[in-house]
Amino acid sequence: MPHHDRSSCGELRLADAGKEVTLAGWVDALRDHGEVLFIHLRDRSGIVQVVFTPESTPQAVCDKAAELKSEFCVQVTGRVIERAEGTDNPGIATGGIEVVAADLDILGRCAALPFQISEKSMTAGAAVKREETVGEDLRLQYRYLDLRRPNMQEHLIRRHRIVKSIRDFLDEQGFVEVETPMLTRSTPEGARDYLVPSRHFPKNFYALPQSPQLFKQLLMVGGMERYFQIVRCFRDEDLRPNRQPEFTQLDLEASFIDEAYLYTLFEELTARMFKIGGIDLSRPFPRMTWQDAMNSSGSDRPDLRFGMTFQDATDLFTQTRYGIFKQILERGGCIKGINVQGASERLSKNVLQNEYAKEIVPGFGAKGMTWMRVMDGGLESNIVQFFSEAERMGILERFDAKPGDVILMIADPSWSLVCTALGQLRLHLAHRLDMIPQGVYYPLWVTDFPLFEAADEGVTSSHHPFTMPDRTDFDPGNIDELLALRSRAYDLVMNGEELGGGSIRINDRGLQQRILQALGLGEQEVAEKFGFFLKALEFGAPPHGGIALGIDRVVAMILGAASIREVIAFPKNRSAFCPLTQAPSTVASAQLEELGLLDLGGDRPLPGAHAKKDQIETLSWVSRIGIGDPERPAIADALAQAAACADRVNRQASPQDAPLFRVAAVSNRFREGREARIHSLSENGELFKNAPAEKGGFFKTAAVLD
Length: 706
Ligand code: ASP
Description:
The protein contains 20 helices and 24 strands.
């Protein structure tokens, strides 16, 4: 059948009644009424009901239809008819009609399904029995089946529309899409590189790009003036739930422009993208300096969908008799707080003292938290008696406190610790008290970041080393001066998430060299890593700047998807592993040899050897339990048994097998309590060396569930 003769299942309507149509797709669901068989036939456009009935369908076709099962791929020819009264299905767009089958071709049979795909019930009003708890790894292992679900298809189609809107808009604005290399040299964006060994240059490696940063700047030197690219970037970072080792970025750069140009351009672009999800963003987007963002919300990506921003209370306590505050202020510290309005019923003394002050806030890095409940007669707390009348009045006024409010303060010698701990507390409370409105989108530009951050030795770039500083008259050897520099960088933030960021760049070779020097790179290292780039800056480099936007994140936000993995066709799982292709995998030693990797020379170990050796370390780390040398053999043995068992399961399973499920009961696997004894390993700190915190002579360890 020529492709163009096929009708789309989801588009048939009453107006098509009487037409002969040919449809192709998958059997979404079946209802067998003895003689009569109904199926829901699904293609990308939607679902239509097909009926096989001895009155209108040839017997041979009915017999063939009896073989159908869920997700068989079929082609059906038949006549569209209006459904008999009372049999409409308003749950599907084609619910007023059905197709009476005249012919059927089974194009592909389907093995037992690992999970249900159908999302639509066949009878009006009936609920779909759907296994909502399908594990994500199972979905990813059978991603091609998961992708058949209309919800996933919708995500990919909308993603396509959003990306297309970017291309259309930037094309209108005179931007040209240019591809940059995937096999390249390291570009610093603060992550580790994914390396690719070269066969032609044994023991030499390409790096996959962390971003096209240097190439896009070289395109500006090359006179392209306005560049963009929808590009894959690779960053080997620590695992986090909403991160992927490879992700897609809209990367953009323009010459002869300033921040104002980029803000306007990007606001229009962002508004267009969100519009595709039916979300209207008002413009211009507000702007906030990094300093103000930290001072008011303790974050460089403030979530401003709700209030509870910080008040500074340092000046209220300059004469205080309250010892803790006094000492902190003597050490140059500060005190900041938030007013949790009307929360005193939900935040009892017990919750404030035992949960927040003792457990939660120390987990955010602060030593403690001061809490006060506002009552009709004034403030109530465990320390309020240490405050003078003037201090109490000052607090009430500063926080605009009303009876029923709760005031929480954090004090510390370190300004940044006060900000970040209070910022985390603000978010924690907002979630706990359900203060974050849904369906609200709050974009914000954060500007004037510090150019550098303090590192173990010297400084590192807050963004990347190609960002223009606010001043150029600095001494690259003076750390204090370097830490006081601000950058001409900007981040686009929405609802507490960083969607993108960029900067005006350095286009002067001398300045670029001094920045690299400030980062502690020696002359030789600079020449080796960035010589080609510095050279380009000698040839009339134009002033330029740009930005990059995380497409996966933006699309997930626009579509309200639970994670970026829901908007990527073939993502890695949370452990950066691909359950579908089982990547990464080991390779044959012949391949390693060909790449010159079998003998890296000297005492450098073989690739992979380190990971193997450290399996026990890894286990110790994830379980937060220190494992001493005497325990290692037994644990190594248990690991080997587990690996062998997994191997057996893998070998036995064939693609046709229905997957096996086992629900592990959550049970307490800890030993019953026994009299405390001091283990010899604990004396040197080995036993709990991975415990996240120590408190009152106890180590905190994570509970490990089977
Ligand atoms: N290269 C930067 C990044 O990927 C963005 C930029 O500065 O344009 O984060």
